[in-house]
Amino acid sequence: MSANSIPRPTDPVTAHFRLMPPQKAALAKLGIVSIHDLLYHFPSRHLNAGGVATITTLADGERATVYAQVVKTDTKKSFHGGVPMSTATLRDPTGTLSVLWFHQPYMAKMFVAGDFVEATGTVKKDARGVTLINPEMKKTDRLPGDVNGSLFTANKDGVDNTPELYPVYPESRGITSRWFFHAMQRIFASGILDTLDYPLPSDILERYNLPSLQTALVWLHSPRDEKHALSARKRFAFEEIFFIQLERQRSRLLYEQNPTFTITADKKGLSTFIKQFGFPFTEAQKNSVDAILADFRSSRAMLRLLEGDVGSGKTAVAATTAYAVVNTRPSGQDFGTLQVAYMCPTEILASQHFESFIQYFVGTGIQIALITGSGCKKFPSKVDPSGWTDISRTQLLKWVANGEIPILIGTHALIQKSVKFKHLAYVIIDEQHRFGTAQRAKLVQKDG
Q: How many domains does the chain fold into?
């Protein structure tokens, strides 16, 4: 990276770093193309560098982490009791140590001579040498040191460059945490942090005591203590949630700008409709109906979630509010009714709601239809006023389009282009989490 040029976040990594083909492939696999990608490739964890030591500095009884190379492995049984165990000999530039795993003979088969490993365990040091007892050990691509100097020793100027916490990054073959650490230091030294825009307003940072973007990046990639690393993680987590909420608010504002119908329910007719259920509404059901009716009277489009356990009466609330809608005339007309669409994730669920609505609406004269991939049905039947009849898809679509059928229940079939409404005023989506945002929006925008 040139000392005279400040990289831009959009610059490709290859413009500022000399990369070998394996490194380029590894970065591409990790999705890192630009300097911005590199800055936002956060460590998955941090090792306490104070616990990372060379073999000759290990003290008896301490718990430490050692980076070393496997010299040999073996399996044997202890002299007393014949306990099966694995052994290994590790070496770093300062010396060698022994590793013992009791009751774990399989460990010797997991490593071979030449493997680079990270071993963490309790040190036993005596006249016979240094031993790690039952350590946690895993392979690494290489020891944490390179031609630029070891991460754990003084640099060429004699200055200790050991960080308090050593960042461990998501890696891929060809690129290591060691490389990422030095790459970040070079990026920070370039002055790029002073050119970055704040994605969060300063008053938000002050209100929630969050570090600035520049500070958070340094604290996450080169923390001096765990408190700084945690603070940086919280800051980026807050930023992610903040923008998710911001996008949701933006979507809601756009949604509320959709054309709406002002609906004022006939309280007397609604009361009569509720009585025919054969059971009194709970306070929760009454409150839900009242809240939805209040939204109907507003000039803004409603966006409301109705929650409740199975059997709590959500369908009764849906039917009651649907009744209020289909008994309302379109604005400026003394004929026709507003329409309701009720979308369900499965044919079984759609059929169940269709049968429930028939029970609730029998005797009202209000027509209800069902459309699924398996066929179409209409209630009431001319032959049986309390039952339904099969009808052709073409006929159903015609009646929905001219407004003759005010309530249409169905599956994803509702959002097909061939389904058109004349005055769609109320959309109910059952188990809405099982539909995508785009699918829900398609149905909402189907008013003719």
A: 3
